[in-house]
Design a protein that fits this description.
CATH class: Mainly Beta
Helix content: under 10%
Number of strands: 29
Bound molecules: beta-D-galactopyranose
Radius of gyration: 19 Å
Structural class: mainly beta
Strand order of the largest sheet: 11-12-13-14-29-23-22-17-20
CATH architecture: Distorted Sandwich
Low-confidence stretches: none
Strand content: 35-45%
Mean pLDDT: 98
């Protein structure tokens, strides 16, 4: 059971596999490099299958291009200011790989490691990763397990991790969604609703200021379904800093409970995506840094704003932000978070 084909060999000689899951309604492909969601096919309003995530056809492109397309990122998703934090009276220094900051786990984060396949059926893949003590500067030996599962028209991603010493831990998937089809260009006509009353504004290096601000009365407000592009170029400092949306929103409701987070849709394809999560936050990122003309699957060209990411997460820089939800993983208290993407079509 379960379909696996070789996808290439890393410069270190590790073979990477491409796994296919298919339940007859939706299907997806997952790379063992970065436990990456390489493709996700869902029916459009006409019943045709549309691949709604950006990706590449070759291993070399995954290794050489930044952007983390579809990857599971960790040990700590998003940024840690200056790559520094203190924990239990000790100072830790991490790789600085994004301006002055640490981003998505460092130089060789989980997105760039080859994961093991622990279990594979037609509808479920369990991938595991061993993250040694000291990897990229983080304390503690962490064992990670990510499960992709298809059920009906839903893709569920379940993140689990255990540690033998206290460590910051924040796991997410960095899928770039384009609900008109991965190769269909600009997504600014696609509509988004976020179940968030507030967000965490950042400085010019995308590090949270430490405050939680209401979205009301600002172009950050997605409480009602709104086209992504409607206010993206508004003269609003937070949007100008990131060249678009690149912000953590505070998801309403209780962390640990699977609850509605976002709805997105394309009126062109008729595809609707509902996102539910147990995580406290979600990063809305409008692919601002994807270079114009970046070659994607099937030879198509990607560019800025050709996708949007909804990275369910703990808030960026939590290890340095005492007021944010606690993103510390401790021995005996596993990391256990779930995000579910459910697809339907407009009536
Ligand atoms: C996002 C992050 C962006 C950018 C992107 C990868 O999670 O918020 O600022 O770094 O990843 O290109």
């Amino acid at each position: 059971m379960g379909n696996t084909i070789p996808f290439g060999t890393t410069p270190q000689g590790r073979q990477v596999e491409l796994l296919t899951l298919d339940n007859g309604q939706i299907s997806c492909r997952i790379l063992t490099l970065g436990a990456t969601l390489q493709a996700l096919e869902v029916p459009d309003g006409q019943g045709r299958k549309v691949d709604v995530v950006l990706g590449y056809d070759t291993l070399t492109e995954y290794l050489e291009n930044d952007g983390y397309l579809g990857a599971v990122v960790g040990r700590y998703a998003n940024r840690i200011a200056a790559g520094r934090f203190s924990l239990n009276g000790r100072d830790y220094t991490l790789a600085v790989n994004n301006g002055p900051n640490h981003l998505h786990g460092g130089l060789v984060g989980y997105s760039h490691r080859v994961w093991q396949v622990a279990e594979l059926t037609d509808t479920q893949a369990v991938l595991t990763l061993d993250s040694p003590d000291g990897e990229e500067g983080y304390p503690g030996h962490v064992q990670v397990q990510v499960t992709y599962a298809l059920s009906g028209t839903s893709l569920t991603i379940h993140y689990q991790a255990v540690t033998d010493a206290d460590t910051p831990c924040n796991l997410t998937n960095h899928a770039y969604f384009n609900l008109s089809g991965h190769d269909s260009g600009n997504t600014m006509d696609q509509e988004l609703q976020l179940r968030a009353e507030s967000y965490t504004p950042t400085d010019e290096t995308s590090i949270p200021l430490g405050t939680v601000e209401p979205v009301e009365g600002t172009p950050m407000d997605f409480r009602a379904l709104t086209p992504l592009g409607e206010r993206i170029d508004a003269p609003f400092l937070q949007l100008q800093l990131g060249n678009g949306y690149d912000h953590n929103y505070v998801v309403q409701g209780d962390t640990g409970t699977l609850r509605p987070c976002a709805t997105a849709l394309s009126r062109r394809s008729g595809i609707v995506m509902e996102v539910e999560t147990t995580s406290p936050g979600v990063q809305l990122y409008t692919a601002n840094f994807v270079p114009q003309g970046r070659k994607g699957k099937g030879g198509c060209a990607y560019g800025p704003r050709h996708a949007f990411c909804l990275e369910t997460q703990f808030f960026p820089d939590s290890p340095n932000q005492p007021a944010f939800p606690d993103a510390l993983l401790r021995p005996g208290k596993p990391f256990d978070h779930t995000t579910r993407f459910t697809f339907s079509t407009l009536q």
